[in-house]
Specification:
Strand content: under 5%
Radius of gyration: 16 Å
Number of helices: 3
Number of strands: 0
Shape: globular
Oligomer: single chain
Largest sheet: none
């Protein structure tokens, strides 16, 4: 049963990261963003989930491209 909680924790940590970053960017609570995605998914029959996956992909690409360098010599 421990492996189930490990998998659940992994998905919660990675999945909620997208909502947290969007909420920080907009200046609202992450809970509001999560419930909005849930309602949007039910209302539009999957569009909210597709939007969520697109945002997760976009944030991942952005993190890979825009890495913070500590100095000029870290190229």
């Amino acid at each position: 049963m421990r492996w189930f909680y490990d998998i659940l924790y992994y998905f919660q940590k990675r999945g909620f990261e997208v909502c947290r970053r969007i909420a920080e960017r907009l200046g609202i609570r992450a809970r509001v963003v999560r419930t909005t995605f849930i309602y949007l998914t039910f209302v539009t029959l999957g569009f909210g989930f597709a939007l969520y996956l697109f945002m997760a992909f976009w944030l991942r690409i952005k993190d890979l491209v825009y890495t913070k360098r500590t100095s000029v010599f870290d190229l």
